[in-house]
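Quick one, tokens below:
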């Protein structure tokens, strides 16, 4: 059977508070990951509708 040994934190209170703040902060502000925005779907649909059509292949004559 495995036993886990925990060591006491060797840091001053300011370092411990900074580490705690980083561990409890949400991921998006730290990673700068894109957040969900429902209005972006309408904007993307508008861009799709306004995009130019692909050129047609010339036919054989």
């Amino acid at each position: 059977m495995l036993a886990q040994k925990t060591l006491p934190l060797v840091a001053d209170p300011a370092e411990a508070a900074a580490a705690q703040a980083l561990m409890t902060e949400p991921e998006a502000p730290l990673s700068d990951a894109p957040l969900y925005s429902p209005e972006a779907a309408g904007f993307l649909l508008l861009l799709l509708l306004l995009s130019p059509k692909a050129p047609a292949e010339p036919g054989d004559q």
